């Protein structure tokens, strides 16, 4: 925490401190876990369940691919395995823009709070 953050923290009321704690900088894993709550948390749950199922089936198909005895059987297992694993990865990565948007909105709330406090004091 730098000097400016400490000064802001000291100037805040108890209610404002609660808001700042809610909008504080969060780590990568905390941001990821935050996606499972809120209004759109159910979407994240659905995406993760579908992504996990696709990944498991893709790994199973890849296992069959590596155990195949001839080329045609290998193709029948290899193409679906690759497709499922790539789509599962894409689904998981689809949550990244939402995490970034949440970070930006959190910082905007923090700036709004700082401006409101400045206006109230001055």
Automatic annotation (TrEMBL):
Q: Where are the transmembrane segments?
A: 40-63, 75-95
**InterPro entries the UniProt entry points to:** DUF6768 (IPR046659)
Key words, A-Z = Membrane, Transmembrane, Transmembrane helix
Q: What is this protein called?
A: Holin-X, holin superfamily III
Species of origin reads Maritimibacter dapengensis
Q: What is the lineage of its organism?
A: Bacteria, Pseudomonadati, Pseudomonadota, Alphaproteobacteria, Rhodobacterales
